Each structure stands twice: as structure tokens, then as C-alpha cells.
Amino acid sequence: MRKQRIFGNLRRGLFAQFAKLRAKYTVLTSFFNRLMPADLRRRDYWNKNLRLTALLLGIWFVATFGVIFFARELNDILLLGFPFAYYMGAQGSLIIYVLIIWVYAHRMNKLDEDYGVEDKEHPFH
Fold it and tell me: Is the CB of residue 93 less than 8 Å from the CB of residue 64?
């Protein structure tokens, strides 16, 4: 019991320290990004945007065409009682697409905030 309490307190302390470091990093990143010259800032922002878009398009490609290409091999795997390729065609791909949209919106809002180009009057911010 005492061992669990010690490890529980240690884990909570580590999470708290991690949260503090992440908050400091976010503030410093935002501060230094605003100090960069405008052309470098725009180029850096655009490169990060392209990297995120390429990553998400890669995930989209694998979820869409990779599953179709390897359908016979993937049908040996059962997910919720259905062959994996069938499940991905029926529901899995749609879930992945919604997650891709959510990740893109979330990361771009964060990127906009870091570079000082966020929409101040956005109702969902």
C-alpha cells in the first residue's frame, strides 16, 4: 500500500513538472516566433503547415488505398467480429478521416497561435 502511494505521488509530481515545462516551452516558442523577421516567420509557418499536411495526406493514403491493396491479407484479422478490410471500408476509414480533420484543425489553431496569426474573433476558439 505504501509503495503504491509513493509511486502515485511520484507519478503525479512528474506529470505536474511536465505540464509546467510544456507551458514554459509554449510561451517561449510563441515569444521567439514573434521575434523572427517576418519573411523567416512566414517561411517557417508555411514549412510546418506543409509538413503537417504531408503527414496527414500520407495517413489518408494508407487508410484509403493501403487497406484496399492489402485487403486479402488483412481479412485474416478480425475486428469486432468482422474482417479488418471490411470494417475499414464500412467504418474505420470514416473514423480516421474525422480524426485527420480534427488533428489538422487543432494543430493549425496551435500553429496560428504560436505565430500570432490566429483569428481573434473566432467563435469556437
Answer: yes
